[in-house]
Amino acid sequence: MQKTLLAIVLAGSLVAACDSGGGRPPAADQSPSVSAIANQSVVANGTSQPIGFTIRDENPGSVAVEAYSGDTSVIADEGLILGGSGESRTITLAPIVDTLGDTTISISVRDDAGRASATAFGVEVVPEVRSMQTFARDAFAGDENADPALINAVEFLQDADSDDFSDLLAD
Predict the structure, then answer these.
(1) Other C-beta atoms lying within 10 Å of the C-beta of residue 101
(2) How close are the terminal C-alpha atoms of the chain, in Å?
(3) What tens digit of pLDDT does each residue of 24-49 get?
(4) CA separation (Å) from 74 to 68, 79, 122, 125, 151?
(5) What span, in angstroms and rounded, lies between the C-alpha atoms of 164 and 143?
(6) Domain extents in the chain
(7) Which of 124, 113, 4 is CA-nearest to residue 59?
(8) Cβ-based neighbours of 54, under 8 Å, separated by 6 or more
(9) According to CATH, what is the number of the domain 33-126?
(10) Cα dihedral 33, 37, 43, 47 sign
(11) Residue 168: pLDDT band with limits 50, 70, 90
(12) For strand 64-69 and strand 80-85, is the pairing parallel, antiparallel, or unpaired?
């Protein structure tokens, strides 16, 4: 008889807990979450615009946010600039100067209780494409006391007059 009474008391407590939480037991504390970020392209020797992401947590203002680069020879961890507050956060990407390549950026969030989650996205650092006029003006139109311009390479993507010069290369 005592076992039956105990089961009824426990069942009654569970029903009371369920009724106070809208038909379900109260939710346990959950880890913070960070929204997904689409893959990005950044022009070499520049920085990205601030890239927005969202943090979800009971107290998003107390969540620690960290960012890491998968390839620090393309974007160093110091080139990952975090901004924003509360739920609305940003990251700005500043690649290593004169470097092209791909990397993965990871963003992790951790709350006061030590619960954590993370997201990652790909970044491609691409060359800057400029017109020859802009290139010549930027490279050679400095004042007479300016340092000389260093030119590593010039790549022409299209022949303007599309003449075929193969006959000039023949023996």
Answers:
(1) 15
(2) 110
(3) 433 456 899 999 999 999 999 999 99
(4) 12, 10, 12, 8, 21
(5) 39
(6) 1-28, 33-126
(7) 113
(8) 34, 35, 87, 88, 89
(9) 2.60.40.10
(10) negative
(11) low
(12) unpaired
